[in-house]
Specification:
single chain, about 200 residues, alpha+beta, 5-stranded antiparallel beta sheet
Length: about 200
């Protein structure tokens, strides 16, 4: 399952006197000196087999037709008559299944176990090599993006604060008083306050 994908990374530097091991998982990235490292994928990339006393490192490919998270490779085995066999594996601890493609009968081969005789060839599993998919991200603009988000949030909060404006004009010649007002929020409430203030000024 994706939540089981794990990688251990060794960060070392002679200049910084640094030697540190960190673990990354899916949804748990490593943040180190401006880098963000995400666990993106996991697979079994190669197996090392000994076939008739000769070591082979075979590259595997995912086979979704067989099942989820299954990797395999097609090989020819046989010291006299060659036949194709499908090698499949679904985890890093084994076993490796060797299947005859004619009838899909198979045998399980375990790491460092006794060799199996397959079509007169002796086959033993020496090593399973997994691979880990990582995404390494370095984005120096992240602090500016966060700062922009803060400005947007602050501006949104400011826009929610009601602002009321009031103007009073006095005409000395006619002795008339003119009152005007403007509000960006709660116009009904501002109207009531405006008329209340007008009445108080008239009665002053």
């Amino acid at each position: 399952m994706p939540k089981q994908f794990v990688s251990k990374l060794n960060f070392s530097s002679e200049d910084l006197n640094l030697n540190e091991i960190k673990t990354t998982k899916v949804n748990h990235p490593i943040r180190f000196k401006g880098l963000t490292i995400y666990q993106a994928d996991w697979a079994i990339s190669n197996v090392v087999l000994e076939i008739d006393n000769i070591l082979y490192q075979l590259q595997l490919k995912e086979i979704p037709e067989i099942g989820n998270q299954v990797w395999g490779v097609l090989v020819e085995l046989g010291s006299e008559t060659k036949k194709n066999f499908l090698l499949t594996i679904d985890n890093e601890n084994g076993p490796l299944k060797i299947s005859n493609i004619e009838n899909f009968s198979g045998k399980n081969l375990y790491i460092n176990a006794d060799p199996l005789e397959v079509n007169s060839s002796k086959v033993s599993l020496k090593k399973i090599i997994p691979s880990s998919g990582l995404i390494i991200k370095n984005d120096p603009s992240i602090p500016f993006i966060y700062f922009s988000f803060i400005l947007i949030i602050f501006g949104t909060i400011i826009s929610l604060i009601p602002t009321n404006q009031l103007w009073i004009l006095v005409n000395k010649e006619s002795q008339k008083l003119s009152i005007g007002g403007l509000s960006n929020k709660n116009l009904v409430g501002f109207k009531k306050e405006f008329f209340k203030l007008s009445d108080e000024i008239k009665n002053f």
